[in-house]
Amino acid sequence: MRAGRGGDVRLATLIGRLFESYDEAWSYFLSRETPLEDFWSALPERDGSILAGWLIEAPLHVKDAVDELLARLGEVEGVVAAPKHFLHIWIAGVALDPMPDRVTALVDAAREAWSGQRSFGIALRRANCFHDAAVVEAHTDGVPRLLAALDPDADLRVALPHMTVGYLQSPSVASMRDALEDFRDREFASFNTDTVRLCLIPIARSTFTRPWELAGVHSLLQARG
Fold first, then answer.
1. Which of 41, 78, 141, 159 is the right S-S partner for 6, CB 3.0 to 4.6 Å?
2. Residue 194 is part of which domain span?
């Protein structure tokens, strides 16, 4: 997950400008001279803080496909490699610290918004780097469709589907280039998804990346043909 992309509930002040293409993000990363940003600075300090968000959990073969990349990122000072249980493709954050009745309403709203949405494929390929996170690009038209149906005001120009593999704490850009360039052209894995999950994610600085609580599931219609 990353806060504040394409209509998300925001955790804090947005870090850096939003990119409108994966290639724009990579070009900016290659030309950057200053250290990267601190993802953790956007997280609340208060223990118990929860973000409710819709996501697609990466299946096991996808998690296994990024083992080498996760190991490389784990060697970089200033990077927290995503634990495998936390690997996912983010759709949207929808509420901060929701009460149970609010969670029920969020599930009902998504069920209505996505009533006609069908399952879709996702191709995970090419490592990339945003301002505060190392990611694998998630090539699909399905995630933007879900986001647009859920939030008609979302800016789809900057909704770049991705799977975050490393959360940054201001590492040097040179060390990140060394870690990611070998994976820039890597084809990691592909899968079809027919399920999206509403998860309650502990987002305090002391609890982030701990296992989330499943709060709701929405099943997509089977794709035609």
1. 159
2. 22-219
DSSP secondary structure string for all residues of 122-138:
EEEEEEEE-SSEEEEEE
Number of structural domains in the chain:
1
Structural domain includes residue 79: yes
| pLDDT at res. 223 | 73
Instruction: Report the pLDDT value the prediction gives residue 72, as an integer from 0 to 100.
Output: 98
CATH number of the domain at 198, please: 3.90.1140.10
Residue 150 inside a domain? The answer is yes
12 within some domain: no
Statement: the pTM of the whole predicted model exceeds 0.90: yes
What pLDDT, on the 0 to 100 scale, is given for residue 5?
Answer: 46
Instruction: Tell me the residue type at 213.
Output: E
Residue 144, domain member (yes or no): yes
Nearest to 127 by CA among 83, 168, 166, 77: 166
Answer whether residue 7 shows pLDDT above 50.
no
DSSP the chain: --TTSTTPPPSSS--SPPPSSHHHHHHHHHH--S---BGGGGS-SSTT-EEEEEEEEPPHHHHHHTHHHHHHHHTSTTEEEPPGGG-EEEEEEEEES--HHHHHHHHHHHHHHTTT-B-EEEEEEEEEE-SSEEEEEEE-SHHHHHHHHH-TT--GGG---EEEEEEEBS--HHHHHHHHGGGTT-EEEEEEE-EEEEEEEE-STTTTTSPPEEEEEEEPBPPP-
pLDDT the model gives residue 4 = 44
